[in-house]
């Protein structure tokens, strides 16, 4: 019982730090408050998983970060449109292309062509990263160390920026 009270007191003492961290993740006060509340509940529900030899503040903020990431992934997954038509040229979106001008469409084509011109060792990990794959997944599928994958993505991004510096 005494241990539970101490746990709750430590958690309440961290509320200011948690609120600041939540705001740095969400950049919105209401979302930060929601994240703070979700984290507090999750930490209280999982107090039995905390061991005394672990940094309490680090553990709580890691729980918060994981909740934020999971919520973000859920939102992205729910907003993904899957075309279920048999016509490959039909899109289930409005006829507006989303480009402000023909120049915008040209720029996207130019970016795609530039990425396509990269050697496979840079193009494949960069394209997978843009498609939403995690570094670990890319490293596993390409049978490369994660550091090599991160380096290649970084170098591909720099190369793309330098080749398309006129579009900034």
How would you characterize the overall build of this protein?
With 168 residues, the protein is mainly α. It has 2 domains: 2-79, Rna Polymerase Sigma Factor, Chain: A, CATH 1.10.1740.10; 102-167, Arc Repressor Mutant, subunit A (Orthogonal Bundle), CATH 1.10.10.10. 70% of the residues lie in helices and 0% in strands. It is built from 8 helices and no strands. It has helices at residues 2-13, 15-26, 29-45, 56-79, 102-116, 120-130, 135-142, 146-163. The chain is elongated.
Architecture blueprint of SSEs:
Blueprint: H1 2-13, H2 15-26, H3 29-45, H4 56-79, H5 102-116, H6 120-130, H7 135-142, H8 146-163
Helix pairs in contact: 2-3, 2-4, 3-4, 6-8, 7-8
Can you give me a brief rundown of this structure?
The protein is mainly α. The chain is built from 8 helices and no strands.
Low-confidence parts lasting 5 or more residues at pLDDT below 50? Answer: none
Give the helix tally. Answer: 8
Integer average pLDDT: 82
The shape, in one word, is elongated
The helix/strand order is HHHHHHHH
Strand tally, please? 0
Q: Which second-level CATH architecture of the largest domain applies?
A: Orthogonal Bundle
Q: In angstroms, what separates the terminal alpha carbons?
A: 60 Å
Report the CATH C-level class of the largest domain: Mainly Alpha
CATH superfamily placement of the largest domain = RNA polymerase sigma factor, region 2, helix turn helix motif
* Structural domains: how many: 2
Helix content: 55-70%
| Spatial extent as radius of gyration | 22 Å
Note the beta-strand portion: under 5%
Secondary-structure class: mainly alpha
CATH topology of the largest domain, by name, is: Rna Polymerase Sigma Factor, Chain: A
Reported for the largest beta sheet, the result is: none
């Amino acid at each position: 019982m005494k241990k539970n009270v101490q746990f709750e007191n430590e958690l309440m003492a961290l509320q200011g730090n948690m609120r600041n961290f939540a705001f740095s993740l969400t950049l919105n006060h209401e979302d930060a408050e929601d994240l703070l509340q979700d984290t507090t509940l999750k930490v209280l529900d999982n107090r039995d998983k905390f061991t005394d030899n672990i940094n309490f503040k680090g553990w709580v903020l890691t729980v918060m970060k994981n909740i934020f990431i999971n919520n973000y992934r859920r939102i992205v997954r729910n907003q993904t449109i899957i075309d279920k038509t048999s016509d490959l040229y039909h899109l289930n979106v409005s006829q507006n292309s989303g480009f402000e001008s023909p120049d915008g469409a040209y720029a996207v084509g130019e970016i795609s062509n530039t990425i396509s011109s990269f050697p496979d060792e840079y193009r494949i990990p960069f394209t997978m990263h843009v498609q939403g794959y995690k570094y670990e997944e890319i490293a596993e599928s390409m049978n490369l160390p994660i550091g090599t994958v991160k380096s290649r993505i970084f170098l591909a991004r720099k190369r793309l920026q330098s080749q398309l510096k006129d579009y900034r």
